[in-house]
Amino acid sequence: MTRKEHYRKNISLAWPVMLGQIGHVMVGLADSIMVGALGTVPLAAGAFANSVFVVPMVFGIGLAFGMTTPVANADGEKKPEKARSFLKHGIYLNTSIAFLIFLLLLVLENYLQYMGQEPEVLSVAKGYYRIISFSLVPLLTFLTFKQFAEGLSDTRMAMLISVGANLINIGLNYLLIYGHWGFPALGLEGAGIATLIARLLMAFSMALYVFRKPAFKVYTAGIKWAETQWTHFKVLLDIGVPSGLQFIFEVSAFAIAAVMAGWINAEALAAHQIAISLASVSYMAASGIGAAANVRVSNQLGAGNIPAMRSAAHTNFVLMLILMVFFGLVFFFGRNLLPTFYSSDPAVIALAGQLLIVAVAFQLFDGMQVAVLAALRGLSETRIPTIIVMISYWLIALGTSYYMGFSLNLGALGIWYGLAVGLIVASCLLTWRFEIRSRQLLKDYHESKSRN
After folding, report:
1. Which residues contact 228 (CB under 8 A, 6 or more apart)?
2. I need a surface site. Which of 106, 157, 201, 236 has the fewest CB within 10 A?
3. What pTM value is reported for the model?
4. Distance from the Cα of residue 90 to its chain's centroid
């Protein structure tokens, strides 16, 4: 396969995931706008509930990502029976973990009162919190089937289902939050119900697609549901658990950075949230290329074609740099305009514009670490990358953020300089690890060829 063909294949896999992920960000934005119309207390209650929910949620998402690599490996090996077994074990594992997380969140509800929130905010948050906690079950079910399909290089249907469900979510928000067309006005809980219904539809639709698609019959027909193998659960856990921890390290680092910004003043926190909100759009787009890197690397590894595996990874890295340069230019030239969509405070707009300049470099390395982490996941290489991510985010990024933000009195800019330093370190170390690992595989490949 030529490099041009690698680029074409990578793009065909990546763009549906990009659109689906950006759609999720847009729905989150729509939720905030529609709930925000109810007043400050419902908006604060929703933000609080989501801040508690997000850490176990991202762990569950990372766990579900463990499905893609072994399925793509099996596809590359031309062993549909292995892919079939991983589908079955993934359904069992991810659904069980989703229910366990749900139960954990229910127990945690008893301790929300100790998290320093105003009683009125806490009262409004609890009903919404229970609903979105349960929505994790259909979300992980959807992701199980989505990651299975992605492992077989099918990314478009998941995108169509996600976009359709997101539109339904927004429509249900309109009906259930405000009580239009005869529906009850449920406020924040209405937003939670809309999210739950959308995720149930996503799970059902994706499962139906996987089991009904003729090309997938070889993978889904004849599943022996009563038979399980611990070794297949172990493979999924060995990839999924470290991936979940990687997500937790990243999400928690940015959450702590927001807390640090709040220590400065309200304007610093608002500017930080604006810049992070904009950066999340490019991050979600980057996750599409990351998905393509995971699928292509694990598929070529399963096929035993190590040179093609490295070419697939490297062309994805180039695509990622191009995408992040594009977003960097958007942030640089739009630094004075984009923040005005969020705030009318001149001080907040000016500071957010300065943070977006930092984000220009921020994006390049953030995108690269997404792509390289995904490629390493494709090699089933997760433990050392998890250590790298933990050190880069929790020690280097947060330590540097605190030092530059407070000891050097650089404020919110110092916090973002620290985050950028952590991302640069993570990107460089992860790239180094991928090159070491893939070059060893290439050496073994050539030695095997020479012996034969």
Report:
1. 88, 89, 92
2. 106
3. 0.85
4. 18
What are the tokens at 4? Answer: 């041009």
Contact 423, 362 (CB under 8 A): yes
Residue (of 201, 222, 260) closest to 401 by Cα position:
260
What's CA 1's distance to the chain center, in Å? 30
- In this predicted model, which residue has the larger pLDDT, 252 or 24? 252
**3-state class (DSSP) for residue 245:** helix
pLDDT surpassing 70 at residue 452: no
**Distance, CA of 317 to CA of 323 (rounded, Å):** 10
For residues 435-448, average pLDDT: 90
Q: Are 411 and 268 in contact (CB under 8 A)?
A: yes
Rounded to whole angstroms, the Cα distance separating 154 from 160 reads 12
Domain ranges in the chain are 14-228, 239-452
Instruction: Name the amino acid, one letter, at 258.
Output: A
Q: Select from 361, 367, 412, 370 the least CA-distant residue to 389.
A: 370
Q: Which residue has the tokens 């640089």?
A: 332
List the Cα angle 348/322/369 in 5-degree steps.
Answer: 75
Which residue in the block uniquely carries the two structure tokens 């390395």?
A: 365
pLDDT digits (tens, 9 = 90+) for 4-59: 888 888 888 888 888 877 776 667 667 767 777 777 677 777 777 877 788 888 88
Nearest to 145 by CA among 201, 90, 198: 90
What pLDDT is stored for residue 32 in this prediction? 67
**∠ at Cα 248 (242, 252), nearest 5°?**
155
pLDDT tens digits, residue range 97-144? 999 999 999 998 888 877 666 778 788 888 888 998 999 999 999 999
Q: Identity (one letter) of the amino acid at 351?
A: L
| DSSP assignment letter at 187 | T
Contacts of 99 by beta carbon, 8 Å cutoff, 6+ apart: 137
Report the amino acid identity of residue 301: L
pLDDT at residue 390 in the model: 95
> What burial letters (b/e) apply to 134-144, b meaning 16+ CB within 10 Å?
bbbbbbbbbbb
